[in-house]
Amino acid sequence: xxxxxxxxxxxxxxxxxxxxxxxxxxxxxxxxxxxxxxxxxxxxxxxxxxxxxxxxxxxxxxxxxxxxxxxxxx
Length: 74
Description:
- The chain has 74 residues and is mainly β.
- The chain has one domain.
- The protein has no helices and six strands.
């Protein structure tokens, strides 16, 4: 399982994709939905400043915290 790196406490909303960007910050982007205009503008939700390492997957978990897990690649 993954381990928590930064306690962000992000409240999730429907229609948004939450992720850790290239700079190591917690961010979100609007996903395309029917009847709503699509805006591909990224918003930084919390400045974590994580140092990303090769071989790990960085994500925002259910509690709204930035976490990472080792990728299972062969």
